[in-house]
Each structure stands twice: as C-alpha cells, then as structure tokens.
Amino acid sequence: MLSEKEIMRIFRETQVWQEGHFLLTSGRHSGEYIQCARVLQYPRFTETLCYELAKKFKGEEIDVVAAPAVGGIIIAYEVAKILQTRAIFAERENGKMVFRRGFEIDEDEKVLVVEDVITTGGSVQEVIQAVRAAGGDVRGVGVFVDRSGGKAKFDTRVEALLTVTIKTYSPEECPLCREQIPLVKPGSRKL
Questions:
Q1: What are the pLDDT digits (tens) for 8-40?
Q2: Residue 147 domain-assigned?
C-alpha cells in the first residue's frame, strides 16, 4: 500500500503538485495547485495509483467503471482493467454530463465512479446522476485526490488516495497579490 508520503513524492516528481500564485476556476486565489493530468503521462505511476484505488474496491461487485471526461478517462480505463470490468466516460452535451458514443449502463449494473481530483465534487455528482438516470447502481466514488479536505459529499462511499485542504483567498484578501507574485490561470476550464 502506498503511503501519503509516497503519493506526494510521485506528485512532486511528475509536477502534479505545484506552488506559486494561481487563479482557480472559482475566481479564488491559491498558493498551491494540483494538476493530476501530469501524472497520467507516466504509465508506471498511473498504473500504481490506479492499482491502489482499485484495491479499495476489490471484492465489491463492480460491473462498470465510469468517469467524467477528460480527467477520469485514463483512470477509469486502468481501474476497470484491474477490476476486470469495462470502462466508460460521460461528457458534456448542452451543458449536461451524458453518456454518448454508444456507452450504456444496463438496469441495476453496479458502477464505480472515478476521477482524478475533486474540489467541489460537481463533475462527479453529475456522473452519478447520469448513471442513476440510466438505471445504474452507484457503488462508490474513487479519486486520486480529494482537494476539498473531505467537504465534498456524496450519498455513496468515497475513497481517496490523498485528502488535502488547500488554502484559498478572495482576490481582495490574497497575500500573494500583496507580494506581487504573478498570477497564473492553470487548469482545463475557462472562467
């Protein structure tokens, strides 16, 4: 089993964990940022992390591993491979997460939802709703990093490899702004 220290070593080595002055999607500022996509460049690390995540659900009856696009696609594939089941992903269509491309969930199929990082849990919640709308039974949520510090809540079991609380600031109260550290907009969503 990987310790939190070993996970952090992997995240620092692959530049997942970043320090600086960041403008978050919420409009808040932070001195730390987590970009999990960076670790997915390295199959050996991805496999190791996904194995640790899959182990948390070993012995559960899982028929399908589902994820939101884009962050969870590779994780869903790898976890499904380990659990010897299939993987699908949901993507936005007209602002709503849906299963397309012929992906289907049969009535009462047992589904594990996976994601790279959760902050508010919004994308994961949307995938849970899409699974249930298709008749699936959500058996749990697995994530690499729960960035909410455990505050993101779901009505199912949640397992995270790492749970962290990252301090954020409103632009008006940001000490990094006062220090005139350049502001960077990372991530994948537009404001």
A1: 999 999 999 999 999 987 788 999 999 999 999
A2: yes
